[in-house]
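WARN no homologs supplied; continuing
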Amino acid sequence: MIATISSDQVDRQGEVVLPSGLVKAQFNKNPIVLCNHQWDTLPIGKCLWIKQQKNTLIAKYQLADTPDGNIILKLLQEGVLTSHSIYFNALEVTPPTAEEIVKRPDWKSCSKVFREWELLEFSVVTLPANTDATALAVAKGFRQS
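OK structure emitted
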């Protein structure tokens, strides 16, 4: 699977998470993918890589060959699920600057800009905070071994 997991748009909570602020050293040690941020259940997959492309973060991940992983795969293939979401620790947060609002008028309604943040996990979700965070490519049933 390949998906946009975040972008610099104002999300449903009135916040912006800057892709350039990603700190992923700890995430890389445990690159899990969850369903709906359910930390008390087993992961549904693992992240293979995350890349910044302009104002977005793109991730490639593999779903586990488990009952939950297979259900999520089928829902993604059918287009029932498309959304993704990040969960993180904030490291540096400020309001948007006047210059940023001039460059990005859509940030006028923004209350916080997460300038540096540590990724803990990302999830396939039913309702994302960031509406740009959607599936880009879904496997047709092929699994890497």
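Helices lie at 25-29, 67-77, 98-103.
OK
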